[in-house]
Design a protein that fits this description.
Chain lengths: 126, 189
Protein backbone atom coordinates (compact mmCIF):
# COMPACT_ATOMS: atom_id res chain seq x y z
CA UNK A 1 0.00 0.00 0.00
CA UNK A 2 1.28 3.42 -0.91
CA UNK A 3 1.70 5.74 2.04
CA UNK A 4 3.66 8.77 3.22
CA UNK A 5 6.38 6.96 5.19
CA UNK A 6 9.05 8.15 2.77
CA UNK A 7 8.18 11.82 3.22
CA UNK A 8 11.24 12.62 5.30
CA UNK A 9 13.54 11.14 2.70
CA UNK A 10 14.99 13.50 0.14
CA UNK A 11 16.20 13.66 -3.42
CA UNK A 12 19.39 11.80 -4.32
CA UNK A 13 22.09 14.01 -5.78
CA UNK A 14 25.62 13.22 -6.93
CA UNK A 15 28.58 15.55 -6.90
CA UNK A 16 31.09 15.85 -9.68
CA UNK A 17 34.45 14.15 -9.22
CA UNK A 18 36.34 16.78 -7.25
CA UNK A 19 40.11 16.82 -7.35
CA UNK A 20 41.87 17.91 -4.16
CA UNK A 21 45.45 18.74 -5.04
CA UNK A 22 46.40 20.73 -1.94
CA UNK A 23 46.67 19.52 1.66
CA UNK A 24 45.48 21.16 4.85
CA UNK A 25 42.30 22.66 6.20
CA UNK A 26 42.96 26.00 4.51
CA UNK A 27 42.55 24.21 1.20
CA UNK A 28 39.29 22.43 2.00
CA UNK A 29 37.37 22.29 -1.25
CA UNK A 30 33.64 22.17 -2.00
CA UNK A 31 32.48 18.66 -2.83
CA UNK A 32 28.67 18.98 -2.68
CA UNK A 33 26.99 22.38 -2.68
CA UNK A 34 23.77 22.60 -0.66
CA UNK A 35 20.80 24.02 -2.60
CA UNK A 36 19.67 27.47 -1.50
CA UNK A 37 17.37 28.67 -4.28
CA UNK A 38 14.20 26.66 -3.65
CA UNK A 39 10.94 28.63 -3.67
CA UNK A 40 9.37 29.56 -0.36
CA UNK A 41 11.09 28.46 2.84
CA UNK A 42 13.06 25.67 1.20
CA UNK A 43 15.71 25.03 3.85
CA UNK A 44 17.71 22.03 2.62
CA UNK A 45 20.04 19.61 4.38
CA UNK A 46 22.45 17.02 3.01
CA UNK A 47 22.92 13.46 4.24
CA UNK A 48 25.88 11.58 2.81
CA UNK A 49 24.78 8.25 1.38
CA UNK A 50 27.90 7.23 -0.50
CA UNK A 51 31.48 8.39 -0.65
CA UNK A 52 34.09 7.41 -3.22
CA UNK A 53 37.74 8.31 -2.66
CA UNK A 54 40.73 7.81 -4.89
CA UNK A 55 44.16 8.35 -3.32
CA UNK A 56 46.39 9.02 -6.29
CA UNK A 57 49.95 8.73 -4.98
CA UNK A 58 49.39 10.93 -1.91
CA UNK A 59 50.97 8.51 0.56
CA UNK A 60 49.08 7.02 3.48
CA UNK A 61 47.08 9.87 5.01
CA UNK A 62 43.78 11.11 6.45
CA UNK A 63 40.96 12.64 4.48
CA UNK A 64 38.55 14.97 6.31
CA UNK A 65 34.89 15.42 5.32
CA UNK A 66 32.94 18.31 6.82
CA UNK A 67 31.69 21.83 6.23
CA UNK A 68 33.46 25.17 5.88
CA UNK A 69 37.15 25.82 5.25
CA UNK A 70 40.14 27.15 7.19
CA UNK A 71 38.88 28.67 10.48
CA UNK A 72 35.25 27.71 9.88
CA UNK A 73 35.90 24.07 9.03
CA UNK A 74 34.07 21.44 11.13
CA UNK A 75 34.37 17.69 10.66
CA UNK A 76 31.05 16.03 9.87
CA UNK A 77 32.38 12.53 10.48
CA UNK A 78 35.72 11.25 11.81
CA UNK A 79 38.59 11.56 9.34
CA UNK A 80 39.03 8.60 6.99
CA UNK A 81 42.39 6.87 6.64
CA UNK A 82 43.43 6.35 3.06
CA UNK A 83 46.21 4.09 1.82
CA UNK A 84 48.21 5.41 -1.09
CA UNK A 85 47.14 4.40 -4.58
CA UNK A 86 43.88 2.80 -3.47
CA UNK A 87 40.20 3.52 -3.92
CA UNK A 88 37.78 3.49 -0.98
CA UNK A 89 34.01 3.22 -1.17
CA UNK A 90 31.84 4.02 1.86
CA UNK A 91 28.14 3.39 1.71
CA UNK A 92 25.23 4.57 3.87
CA UNK A 93 25.79 1.65 6.25
CA UNK A 94 29.31 2.94 7.02
CA UNK A 95 28.41 6.60 7.37
CA UNK A 96 26.69 8.28 10.35
CA UNK A 97 23.61 9.95 8.87
CA UNK A 98 24.50 13.46 9.98
CA UNK A 99 22.32 16.18 8.47
CA UNK A 100 24.44 19.01 7.16
CA UNK A 101 22.90 22.39 6.50
CA UNK A 102 25.87 23.71 4.54
CA UNK A 103 28.01 22.80 1.57
CA UNK A 104 30.13 19.68 2.16
CA UNK A 105 33.88 20.26 1.94
CA UNK A 106 36.88 17.95 2.18
CA UNK A 107 40.64 18.12 2.58
CA UNK A 108 43.52 15.64 2.82
CA UNK A 109 46.19 16.01 5.50
CA UNK A 110 48.86 15.33 2.91
CA UNK A 111 49.07 14.96 -0.84
CA UNK A 112 52.77 14.41 -1.50
CA UNK A 113 53.22 14.66 -5.24
CA UNK A 114 49.70 13.43 -5.95
CA UNK A 115 46.07 14.37 -5.37
CA UNK A 116 42.76 12.99 -4.15
CA UNK A 117 39.61 12.47 -6.20
CA UNK A 118 36.41 12.61 -4.13
CA UNK A 119 32.83 12.02 -5.18
CA UNK A 120 29.81 12.14 -2.87
CA UNK A 121 26.25 10.95 -3.28
CA UNK A 122 23.82 12.70 -0.95
CA UNK A 123 20.18 12.77 -0.14
CA UNK A 124 19.03 16.37 -0.09
CA UNK A 125 16.18 16.79 2.37
CA UNK A 126 13.75 19.65 2.79
CA UNK B 1 -23.65 12.19 -3.65
CA UNK B 2 -23.12 8.53 -2.78
CA UNK B 3 -19.63 9.23 -1.50
CA UNK B 4 -18.85 10.90 1.79
CA UNK B 5 -16.31 13.66 2.17
CA UNK B 6 -15.69 14.22 5.85
CA UNK B 7 -13.11 16.05 7.97
CA UNK B 8 -9.94 14.08 8.79
CA UNK B 9 -10.98 11.34 6.40
CA UNK B 10 -8.30 8.87 5.50
CA UNK B 11 -8.85 6.85 2.41
CA UNK B 12 -6.30 4.20 1.53
CA UNK B 13 -3.09 6.17 1.92
CA UNK B 14 -4.47 9.36 0.56
CA UNK B 15 -6.01 12.72 1.34
CA UNK B 16 -9.30 13.91 -0.01
CA UNK B 17 -10.87 17.36 -0.22
CA UNK B 18 -13.38 17.97 2.54
CA UNK B 19 -15.88 19.47 0.07
CA UNK B 20 -16.43 19.78 -3.65
CA UNK B 21 -17.74 22.67 -5.75
CA UNK B 22 -21.36 23.37 -4.79
CA UNK B 23 -21.06 21.85 -1.33
CA UNK B 24 -22.05 23.82 1.77
CA UNK B 25 -19.63 24.23 4.64
CA UNK B 26 -19.65 26.00 7.97
CA UNK B 27 -16.16 27.13 8.97
CA UNK B 28 -16.12 27.64 12.72
CA UNK B 29 -13.58 30.20 13.85
CA UNK B 30 -13.74 31.17 17.53
CA UNK B 31 -17.39 32.10 18.13
CA UNK B 32 -18.07 32.83 14.44
CA UNK B 33 -19.87 30.43 12.13
CA UNK B 34 -19.07 31.14 8.49
CA UNK B 35 -21.76 29.45 6.39
CA UNK B 36 -20.38 29.26 2.87
CA UNK B 37 -20.74 27.45 -0.44
CA UNK B 38 -17.62 26.17 -2.20
CA UNK B 39 -17.32 27.70 -5.67
CA UNK B 40 -13.80 26.59 -6.59
CA UNK B 41 -10.96 24.55 -5.16
CA UNK B 42 -7.51 23.31 -5.98
CA UNK B 43 -4.84 21.08 -4.48
CA UNK B 44 -1.77 22.41 -2.68
CA UNK B 45 1.06 19.87 -3.14
CA UNK B 46 3.52 19.25 -0.28
CA UNK B 47 5.69 22.26 0.45
CA UNK B 48 7.90 23.51 3.25
CA UNK B 49 5.85 26.27 4.87
CA UNK B 50 7.93 27.13 7.93
CA UNK B 51 11.41 26.80 9.35
CA UNK B 52 11.10 27.66 13.02
CA UNK B 53 14.89 27.95 13.09
CA UNK B 54 17.53 26.94 15.62
CA UNK B 55 16.41 25.57 18.96
CA UNK B 56 18.87 24.99 21.81
CA UNK B 57 18.98 21.58 23.51
CA UNK B 58 16.05 20.83 25.81
CA UNK B 59 14.43 24.15 25.01
CA UNK B 60 11.13 25.33 23.54
CA UNK B 61 11.21 27.82 20.68
CA UNK B 62 9.16 31.03 20.66
CA UNK B 63 5.68 30.62 19.20
CA UNK B 64 6.16 31.29 15.48
CA UNK B 65 3.47 32.45 13.08
CA UNK B 66 3.07 30.33 9.92
CA UNK B 67 2.06 33.17 7.61
CA UNK B 68 2.68 30.95 4.57
CA UNK B 69 -0.52 29.15 5.54
CA UNK B 70 -2.70 32.22 5.07
CA UNK B 71 -5.45 32.24 2.46
CA UNK B 72 -7.24 35.04 0.63
CA UNK B 73 -10.53 36.57 1.69
CA UNK B 74 -13.52 34.19 1.38
CA UNK B 75 -11.17 31.22 1.28
CA UNK B 76 -10.26 28.43 3.65
CA UNK B 77 -7.62 25.74 3.61
CA UNK B 78 -7.54 22.08 4.56
CA UNK B 79 -3.99 21.25 5.55
CA UNK B 80 -2.12 18.19 6.79
CA UNK B 81 1.44 18.66 7.97
CA UNK B 82 4.46 17.03 9.58
CA UNK B 83 7.83 18.11 11.04
CA UNK B 84 11.08 17.02 9.38
CA UNK B 85 13.48 17.59 12.27
CA UNK B 86 13.85 16.12 15.76
CA UNK B 87 11.35 18.22 17.70
CA UNK B 88 7.88 17.97 19.11
CA UNK B 89 5.69 20.59 17.52
CA UNK B 90 2.71 22.17 19.24
CA UNK B 91 0.16 23.93 17.07
CA UNK B 92 -1.85 26.99 18.06
CA UNK B 93 -4.79 28.42 16.13
CA UNK B 94 -5.22 31.26 16.77
CA UNK B 95 -1.98 32.03 18.53
CA UNK B 96 -3.55 31.97 22.00
CA UNK B 97 -5.42 28.68 21.56
CA UNK B 98 -3.66 25.34 21.51
CA UNK B 99 -4.86 22.63 19.13
CA UNK B 100 -4.99 18.86 19.68
CA UNK B 101 -5.88 19.46 23.32
CA UNK B 102 -6.70 16.98 26.00
CA UNK B 103 -7.68 18.08 29.47
CA UNK B 104 -4.16 17.81 30.88
CA UNK B 105 -1.98 17.81 27.80
CA UNK B 106 -1.62 19.44 24.43
CA UNK B 107 -0.65 16.65 22.08
CA UNK B 108 2.48 17.49 20.06
CA UNK B 109 3.42 16.16 16.63
CA UNK B 110 6.92 14.81 16.04
CA UNK B 111 8.58 13.24 12.97
CA UNK B 112 7.37 9.77 13.96
CA UNK B 113 3.91 10.86 12.81
CA UNK B 114 4.83 9.69 9.30
CA UNK B 115 5.02 6.10 10.54
CA UNK B 116 2.36 6.20 13.24
CA UNK B 117 -0.15 7.99 11.03
CA UNK B 118 1.17 7.67 7.47
CA UNK B 119 -1.77 9.58 6.00
CA UNK B 120 -1.32 12.42 8.51
CA UNK B 121 -5.07 12.62 8.97
CA UNK B 122 -4.66 13.32 12.70
CA UNK B 123 -2.80 16.50 11.81
CA UNK B 124 -5.54 17.81 9.53
CA UNK B 125 -6.56 21.37 10.31
CA UNK B 126 -8.67 24.05 8.67
CA UNK B 127 -7.58 27.63 8.21
CA UNK B 128 -10.04 30.46 7.66
CA UNK B 129 -8.74 33.30 5.46
CA UNK B 130 -5.62 34.87 7.02
CA UNK B 131 -6.11 33.31 10.48
CA UNK B 132 -2.95 31.24 10.21
CA UNK B 133 -1.70 28.82 12.85
CA UNK B 134 1.41 29.33 14.98
CA UNK B 135 3.86 26.62 16.00
CA UNK B 136 6.24 25.94 18.88
CA UNK B 137 9.14 23.51 18.60
CA UNK B 138 10.17 21.55 21.68
CA UNK B 139 13.72 20.28 21.21
CA UNK B 140 13.47 17.15 23.32
CA UNK B 141 17.04 16.10 22.53
CA UNK B 142 20.30 16.87 24.33
CA UNK B 143 21.77 18.50 21.23
CA UNK B 144 21.06 21.84 19.62
CA UNK B 145 18.85 21.83 16.55
CA UNK B 146 20.05 23.97 13.67
CA UNK B 147 16.63 24.10 12.03
CA UNK B 148 13.08 22.90 12.47
CA UNK B 149 11.20 22.50 9.20
CA UNK B 150 7.51 21.87 8.72
CA UNK B 151 5.94 20.54 5.54
CA UNK B 152 2.26 20.92 4.71
CA UNK B 153 -0.12 19.90 1.94
CA UNK B 154 -3.81 19.98 1.26
CA UNK B 155 -6.50 21.96 -0.53
CA UNK B 156 -7.50 25.58 -1.02
CA UNK B 157 -11.21 26.37 -1.23
CA UNK B 158 -12.83 29.53 -2.53
CA UNK B 159 -16.30 30.17 -1.12
CA UNK B 160 -19.25 32.53 -1.31
CA UNK B 161 -21.69 33.51 1.38
CA UNK B 162 -24.90 31.50 1.70
CA UNK B 163 -28.28 33.20 1.64
CA UNK B 164 -30.09 33.40 4.98
CA UNK B 165 -32.76 31.02 3.72
CA UNK B 166 -30.16 28.31 3.13
CA UNK B 167 -28.56 28.87 6.52
CA UNK B 168 -31.98 28.49 8.12
CA UNK B 169 -32.48 25.20 6.28
CA UNK B 170 -29.03 24.00 7.35
CA UNK B 171 -29.81 24.81 10.98
CA UNK B 172 -33.12 23.00 10.63
CA UNK B 173 -31.31 19.96 9.30
CA UNK B 174 -32.96 19.94 5.88
CA UNK B 175 -29.89 21.03 3.88
CA UNK B 176 -26.48 19.35 3.82
CA UNK B 177 -23.54 21.16 5.42
CA UNK B 178 -20.07 20.06 6.56
CA UNK B 179 -18.88 21.74 9.76
CA UNK B 180 -15.18 22.51 9.95
CA UNK B 181 -13.29 23.65 13.02
CA UNK B 182 -10.72 26.34 12.25
CA UNK B 183 -9.70 27.36 15.76
CA UNK B 184 -9.00 25.91 19.17
CA UNK B 185 -11.58 25.40 21.90
CA UNK B 186 -10.65 25.75 25.53
CA UNK B 187 -13.49 23.49 26.67
CA UNK B 188 -16.37 24.01 29.00
CA UNK B 189 -15.63 23.65 32.71
Amino acid sequence: MWNMIDLIEGKRRQSAVVNLAAAGVANAGNVMVVSTFAQGVGTKTLQIKRLKIRNNNCGNTWLHIGTGAAGTYVDAIPALYSVTNTTDDYQEFDLPQVQLGATITAYPEAVGAGSFDVQIECEEIG
Amino acid sequence: MGYDLIPHKSGIGSMEPVALIGHNVCVKYASDNHFRRVIWFEAVPPFQFLDIGAVAAATTSPRTQATNLQFWRNEFGQIRWYPMDEAQIRMFLPSADGRYNLRNLQSPVDPTIVTRDPDLHFTECYIWEDRNPAFEAINYTGAALARCRLVGMGYRFVTEELPIADITRIRAGSLQCTYLVASGFSGKP
